[in-house]
Design a protein that fits this description.
The chain is mainly α and 175 residues long. The chain contains nine helices and no strands. The protein has helices at residues 4-7, 14-28, 40-55, 60-85, 95-104, 112-128, 133-139, 143-167, 171-174. The termini are far apart.
Length: 175
């Protein structure tokens, strides 16, 4: 049986609670990129590109493990910001955009223009929010819902990128 202190390590230690909240906000905002005054989601997506470039050089199982870990830790970090702001999808939370870019770039080869297309396709689906992205965004007002609408947008963007790259395999011509 877990003790209360083990379930909530910060409850009996206010300094630890404050540290965990700051750490959660740091991660949810992707190192405070989410505090950018204009278009924080776009800035978070841009900031995620170098991470994605690195992650997709790893063997696929390790890369997907990182994506899953960013999703899970991102949801917990988003919970911190949601608790502080009272908003389910506060604009400063951009770790969901990081996960979206990681997923969308999973089908890109290491060519700058494919990462640019991944960025554009993801942002279009994330901003436009077609069904089912809109359904998740409107009906899941939790930390995991905050993350999940971007995952769905990323899956749609990944499909578009895959189709585009299949129809126009420009790897050598534009590299």
């Amino acid at each position: 049986m877990w003790s209360t202190a083990a379930q909530n390590p910060g409850k009996n230690f206010p300094a630890m609670q404050k540290f965990l909240e700051k750490l959660g906000e740091l991660w949810a905002t992707f190192f405070f990129v989410g505090r950018f005054p204009k278009a924080p989601g776009t800035m978070g997506s841009l900031a995620a590109i170098p991470l994605a470039w690195y992650v997709w050089q790893l063997p696929s199982p390790y890369a997907w493990l990182i994506v899953v870990m960013v999703f899970l830790t991102g949801a917990e970090a988003a919970r911190v910001v949601i608790r502080r702001t009272g908003q389910a999808d506060h604009q400063s939370i951009v770790i969901d955009e990081v996960v979206g870019i990681l997923i969308t770039t999973s089908v890109a080869a290491h060519f700058w223009w494919q990462y640019l297309l991944a960025f554009v396709f993801f942002r279009v689906f994330d901003i436009w929010k077609p069904w089912p992205v809109r359904f998740v965004d409107r009906n899941m007002h939790t930390a995991y819902g905050t993350m999940l609408d971007d995952v769905v947008a990323a899956l749609m963007a990944t499909g578009m990128l895959y189709i585009f790259l299949w129809l126009w395999p420009l790897t050598a011509a534009v590299a």
